[in-house]
Amino acid sequence: MTTTRLAAVAENFGRDVEQNLARIATLADEVRPPGGGGLLALPEACLGGYLSVLGRGRDGSHDEQPDSLPPVMDVDGPELRRVAAIARDLTLVVGFCESDGAARYNSAAVVTGDGVLHVHRKVHQPLGEGSFYEAGDTFAAVDTPAGRLGALICYDKAFPEAGRALALDGAEVVVCISAWPASRTASAGDIAEDRWTQRFNLFDTARALENQVVWVASNQVGTFGSLRFVSHAKVVGPGGDVRATTGVDAGVAVAELDVRAELDTARRAMFHLRDRRPETYREPAHA
After folding, report:
1. d(CA 173, CA 23)
2. Is the pLDDT of residue 275 over 70?
3. Is the pLDDT of residue 43 over 50?
4. What contacts 24+ positions apart, CB below 8 Å, involve 201-207?
5. Which pTM value belongs to this model?
6. Number of neighbouring beta carbons within 10 Å of residue 210
7. Using an 8 Å Cβ cutoff, are 142 and 173 in contact?
8. Which residue of 22, 140, 222, 270 has the fewest CB atoms within a 10 Å radius of its CB?
């Protein structure tokens, strides 16, 4: 049996990049297995902070604008080189504002001591996020020391096609990093009861179960600007069962899993990817 330590972080990360890198280094040292290896998922925008507001929204009901934007970083820049130095034998997934010289993207980098293995640019943009970032347009899995891995960002997980695309590309583990806030129109006093908290958790378990993959979800916690984040970092098994969670608190959810054995067991009788009938999944013709 070969087990992998999978860890998902719920923590508050703001604009102070040096402070963020120092905290990532501490977290990496805390979860690093004695024999090496393992996976650590950090929240969306952990290298420079998320947006402090989500703009007007599609209904135009909010007029706020962010007081600052996340600092832009290059994939080959010094910040991600330092993440690689921190990672060493770990596989890290970190969120950052990527610049390609012309556009800004809300991105997730899969990083080991060898450098950046893969970058996912957030495809689905909620509310007013599209005013500040360009959208990505691809989903792809990548081989890592922690197994074949796919990355998503926050709102991406609300779309079954996103997780399914990664599973079809062979992802055994899907990491979804988030800065998922509580509802701003009908927020609950107890964040555990907030409707957006419930959706966050439902998406995690549903996406794991329907694709029969291990799902690792990180999230921001606390507040940033006008946003209050719901936390609930977790590791979910391929049967949709939550193996570890931070709940409403900051912390690290850690689970030790034999990923290959878990997938084999989940897929032995009913293998959802095998039993698909894609020829029947046609969109209706428009009148």
Report:
1. 24
2. yes
3. yes
4. 201/232, 201/234, 203/157, 203/158, 204/157, 204/176, 204/234, 204/236, 204/242, 205/236, 205/240, 205/241, 205/242, 206/160, 206/240, 207/157, 207/160, 207/163, 207/174, 207/176
5. 0.95
6. 15
7. no
8. 270
Pairwise CA distance, residues 58 & 55, whole Å:
9
Q: Which two three-digit tokens encode residue 119?
A: 């970058």
Average per-residue pLDDT for the chain:
94
Could you tell me the sign of the dihedral formed by the alpha carbons of 239, 242, 244, 250, in that order?
positive
Q: Where are the beta strands (DSSP E) in 220-262?
A: 221-224, 227-230, 234-236, 242-245, 251-257
Q: Which residues contact 119 (CB under 8 A, 6 or more apart)?
A: 75, 98, 107, 108, 109, 110
User: Taking residues 6-28, what's their average pLDDT?
Assistant: 98
Residue 62's pLDDT is 56
Q: How does residue 27 score in pLDDT terms, banded at 50, 70 and 90? A: very high
Is the pLDDT confidence value at 58 over 50? Answer: no
Contact 45, 181 (CB under 8 A): no
